[in-house]
Amino acid sequence: MTLIVKPDRRAPTAVHMVWVRVGSLDEVDGTSGVAHALEHMMFKGTPTLPPGEFSRRVAALGGRENAFTTRDYTGYYQQIPAGRLEDVMKLEADRFAHNQWPDEEFRKEIEVVKEERRMRTEDVPRSLLYEQLNAAAFIASPYHRPVVGWMSDLDAMTPDDVRDFHRRWYVPANATVVVVGDVEPAQVHRLAEKYYGGIPARAVPARKPRTEPVQAGIRRLEFKAPAEQAYVTLAFRVPQLASLTAPQPSDEDALALTVLAAVLDGYEGARLARALTQGPDRVADSAGAGNGLFGRGPQLFVLDGVPAQGKTAEQVEAALRAQVALVAREGVSEAELNRVKTQWVAGEVYKLDSLMNQARELGSYWIQGQPLDAGERLIQRLRAVTAQQVQAVAARYFGDDQLTVATLRPQPLDKNRAPRPAAPGAAGEMR
């Protein structure tokens, strides 16, 4: 197990996190959502702690805690007074190694997970749209499955599915402990040895490559749902940043694509907002751009927009693509480039005022196999991106053969439908 410690003595608090390099990417068909279901069950007890006691004890320490599951990883955290660090390390090590609960606890909690899916996905048209977009954009990659899981898989999931997933992936070599705050590294190391060091070592399961096949033509899907406005999103397959220490040409492109996203939508009044949402001939109420830079699987560059009154999703789609084509044709000025770089770097620096953000960055860099100073390296590399590189990627990655388009076609709203009540659940579940 890896231990990462970063002292920050500005306040007498500490953040303690455990990151496990396992997420929905590591699931197999028929058990989608099991990584997230396990995250819920990690709050349901050990041989020495009854269900819910973990959260009660953290609260009694004056702390707050939660967890999260993504496609690439699962994480657990507590923020506590620095003097109570040992208490939460003991608790977290216990549930990492000895997660245990009766079948009846699982049967209750899987209903919470299903209600979470209903509230956050099935009742939200755009969430459903993105779920189907990912299923269309990715064929071989497990990214085509939703993190929360398909409802049919949740219906069929068993307690042993979750236990087996824990036994397989929650091994020391597949996890890291991150501690940031008012701490002494040597003391944290001693505590980690005391509480995590005794967990038996086991091999991390072999991961087979699931390479995404080359796309050979535009993919389109239309989704009908009760909504007030249409919505369109364009997802282009792009390279991810593989290494900050041994860069490849595709890494340079990934960085340039990140700068391109900032040129289009990186500050108030950026290109997409000016061109699509302002003036008497505006076509959109909103428009955005984003690039998937890091990830254990293939990444997408996404453009999206909401048509203005009297405009169509097709007009917004054309306008979005026209702005990328404009960059490919005419490039960007040095002044514009410097502005977006300055804003991006400032955002990266300011977010480090938070202990939680510092810990999350260190954990995510470890998950991706990046060096722990990846933040500084990334800033340096992005500063070095040239206007010519931005123009080149705008010309290279936005053809039809790399594109999946998803369009939300709004249907009449049911005004008699009562809002869904909040899902039941205990503190500590993913939110």
UniProtKB/TrEMBL annotation:
Domain Peptidase M16 C-terminal: start-end pairs: 157-343
Positions of the Peptidase M16 N-terminal domain: 9-148
Gene Ontology molecular functions: metal ion binding
Residue ranges with Low complexity bias: 419-431
SUPFAM superfamilies from the UniProt entry: LuxS/MPP-like metallohydrolase
InterPro entries membership: Metalloenz_LuxS/M16 (IPR011249), MPP/UQCRC_Complex (IPR050361), Pept_M16_N (IPR011765), Peptidase_M16_C (IPR007863)
Region (Disordered): 409-431
Gene3D superfamilies given in the database record: Metalloenzyme, LuxS/M16 peptidase-like
Protein family: Belongs to the peptidase M16 family.
Record-given protein name: Insulinase family protein
Source organism (scientific name): Variovorax terrae
